[in-house]
Amino acid sequence: MAAPEIRKTLVQVEEIFHEGGPRAETPLLRGAILSVVKNPFAGRYEPDIQPWMEDLKPLGMAMALRLIEALGGDPKRIEGYGKAAIIGQAGEIEHGALWHAPGGYAMREALGEAKAIVPSSKKVGTVGTRLDVPITHVNAAYVRSHFDAIEVGLNDAPRADEIVFILAMTTGARIHNRAGGLPAGEIKGEDGLR
């Protein structure tokens, strides 16, 4: 296979000061990076697609590092993450599934070996399709305060023969979180769950 052919990239960052309650001194940053890539399998069924995952690894790392930079540059500030893919209509859902390892492992490595599995979503869609990217705590999936999502999409992507690969990160818990569960300060860090 060959390195992915990128048409465009978008980086977005939200600063959230409140959700109707008291204003936070430091806003929650919730960001995403989207790369629109030509789908080499568009329009045909290819039984052996796994080799493309290796070619996607540099893209995953470049996107992870760029998103960390957009969120302030300090990997230690990142507390939540997620990944996703929107596949153009000439592709199939399995093409988006190839992003699991290159996107997820890149973020975990860039953040210093985060322990929790990276949540994911994917779907086939048309130009302008939007998608909610699930987010959980980087070291413990059971930390309820960090269950979040960020909506992403581009007005001109994915075209039928493209895939939009997405990484998302946050700098903390939801503003005004009070749904209980395991507090981030009590993470044991043994298994990526607690």
Automatic annotation (TrEMBL):
Gene3D superfamilies membership: BB2672
Name the UniProt record assigns to this protein: Amino acid synthesis family protein
Organism this protein belongs to: Paralimibaculum aggregatum
